[in-house]
Amino acid sequence: MRAALWYKAKDLRVEEIPTPVAPPGMALVKIDRTGICGTDLEEYLLGPVIIPAGMSPIILGHEFVATIVSDSTGTFAAGTMVIPDGVIGCGTCYQCQRHEEGRCPELNVIGLQSNGGLAEFMITDPKRCVPVPAGVSADVAVFAEPTAVAVRAVNKIPNVPGTTVAVLGSGTVGILCAQVARAFGAQKVIVYEPNPVRQEVARKLGFEVLNPLVEKEISMYKEFDSVLECSGVAGSTKTSLKILRSGGTAVLVGFRPGDESFDLLEFILSEKHLVGTAAHMWDVDVSAAVGLLANKIIETGPLLTDVISLADVTTKGFDRLISDKNAFKIAVNPTL
């Protein structure tokens, strides 16, 4: 089969490798689409960041939708479209016992710590797959993983219905977070974004948009009940806390290596909450995401910039995402 193998920073090669054989209890799936994530882009540019030392070469890709080829457990019939689980824990530690595998010290994220979905085929655990309802296309289902990220992030907010929510950054995950917050009952969702193209997409989806680089606009609202920080840019934590009401919750969704600083005294005295979010659970967050997508509560059309072949993954995928700041999600179709 063909697969996109990461060897080191700026060294991604599409090569022919043996098609994997599913051991007992596992399933072989054919990849329909794999989205290129910002995390993949970081590994391409700077890696290894999350990829463990010595793992090279590794197949990237953790935003996948696939079709069952064979399932030794009988959980799914051949031809069933599914979202495979991408967050695997050891199964025995404190976190795994509480179904928080994303916090497992031996965490295995498919496509970062083991071979992922930028390939024609992949092995997965069918008992941890979420079926995709009939009528949902692969181009929509490929957003299940990033939508699950948004679902988990919004669920970190103690109370959403009737509240005001700010979203900093309107990339793919930012727009999905804004839509999920609205779907979960937020009374008002304001999106902060400096890029005019991304601003327009957010507006067309019905959101009020402000520019975080304009002091007058960033301070127009000063009492948000919660903030979803999705940009990951330097200083974003301080900005999030600045526009958050006393007792409110700021959820850090976007990330980058490095430190952030803010006024600790003000943070303590105002009793604000600062929460991180990273992983997602297949039967909670991914299942909810698939439901939102299947019921057309979340709109993904404006977010799908392109669908490309595996052969073009470097030039039309990773390199384009680096140079084109107006691009949202680029998905790879290995059958093209």
Automatic annotation (TrEMBL):
Coiled coil: none annotated. The keyword Oxidoreductase applies. InterPro entries: ADH-like_C, ADH-like_N, GroES-like_sf, NAD(P)-bd_dom_sf, Zn_alcohol_dh. SUPFAM superfamilies: GroES-like (SSF50129), NAD(P)-binding Rossmann-fold domains (SSF51735). The keyword Oxidoreductase applies. GO terms for molecular function: oxidoreductase activity. Residues 173-281 form the Alcohol dehydrogenase-like C-terminal domain. Residues 24-133 form the Alcohol dehydrogenase-like N-terminal domain. Transmembrane segments: none annotated. Gene3D superfamilies: Medium-chain alcohol dehydrogenases, catalytic domain (3.90.180.10), NAD(P)-binding Rossmann-like Domain (3.40.50.720). Keywords: Oxidoreductase. It holds the Pfam family ADH_zinc_N. This is Unannotated protein. It comes from freshwater metagenome. The lineage of its organism: unclassified sequences, metagenomes, ecological metagenomes.
